[in-house]
Amino acid sequence: MKQKPSLAFIAASWVALFAGILGFIIGLWNANMQLNEKGYYFTVLMYGLFAAVSVQKCVRDRLEGVPVTDIYYGISWVSMLLTILLLIIGLWNATLLPSEKGFYAFAFLLSVFGAITVQKNTRDSQAAAKEAAKSNDQFM
């Protein structure tokens, strides 16, 4: 039987997601960068969040026997790796203090972790609700 994630884990996942995103965006807002640089980092963050959710969904679908095309599976992984590479290249070449570079890297990683766990929790909650509904239907 599928178990619904605990409220504490669900809350921690949402906190991680929003803390990472808000920290990253507030850092960009306050950064002494040109607007095109801020746009680059913002786009990398948004693309990374989408790619992380896509990878999580593809991996989970395959584990559960849901068909996922090889091309979408591959694109999801390439996208995730590409966002990490783009962030590394951007930070490597940025004229930021090392502490600022570390801040953006860890805010990005926290956001990606949050996105993956929120997606996982949502899926686990839906699966548990479906099983509970099936069990209730059998007893009626």
From TrEMBL:
GO cellular component: plasma membrane
Keyword Transmembrane helix: yes
Transmembrane residue ranges: 7-28, 40-59, 71-95, 101-118
Source organism of this protein record: Chitinophaga flava
Domain YiaAB two helix per the UniProt entry, residue ranges: 9-61, 72-124
GO BP, sorted A to Z: DNA damage response
Pfam annotation, one family: YiaAB
UniProt keyword list: Membrane, Transmembrane, Transmembrane helix
This protein's name: YiaAB two helix domain-containing protein
InterPro entries, A to Z: YiaA-like (IPR038972), YiaAB (IPR008024)
